[in-house]
Design goal:
The chain is of the alpha+beta class. 22% of the residues lie in helices and 37% in strands. The strands form 2 sheets. Strands 2, 3, 5, 6 and 7 form a 5-stranded antiparallel beta sheet that branches. Strands 1, 4, 8 and 9 form a 4-stranded mixed beta sheet that branches.
């Protein structure tokens, strides 16, 4: 009987580890999409430290990101079924409002934002 109880936790641990590893695999292919791009000034030079605002038009949730070294930004985990509006601002400058449509079926969309 003692032997049975010592094996069971090991088997349970193996089953649990298998389900956890299965979950981590699914996070890489969740059916979500990525939006990335570059924030540029009127001359086409990248802007570091611009605030990029992404609004889900369905939930009205707003996410923000500061553009990095080469003016780049990215948002992960976006629903392919939702519409998004995006714009950037830096000091007194801002970009036009752009959209990411649910009809855009790219897994990784790219939208550059030009400040005026």
């Amino acid at each position: 009987m003692l032997r049975k109880w010592t094996i069971m936790p090991v088997v349970y641990g193996i089953l649990l580890a298998g389900s956890v590893s299965g979950q981590s695999t699914r996070t890489f292919d969740t059916g979500t999409r990525i939006l990335k791009g570059t924030v540029l000034d009127s001359s086409g030079r990248p802007i570091v430290g611009a605030v990029v605002l992404l609004k889900d038009t369905k939930t009205l949730q707003v996410r923000s990101y500061l553009s990095q070294d080469k003016g780049e930004y990215h948002f992960f985990g976006l629903s392919p079924n939702d519409e998004y509006e995006i714009r950037a601002q830096h000091g007194e400058l801002s970009s036009n409002l752009k959209s990411l449509s649910s009809f855009d079926n790219r897994k990784e969309a790219k939208i550059d934002l030009k400040l005026k």
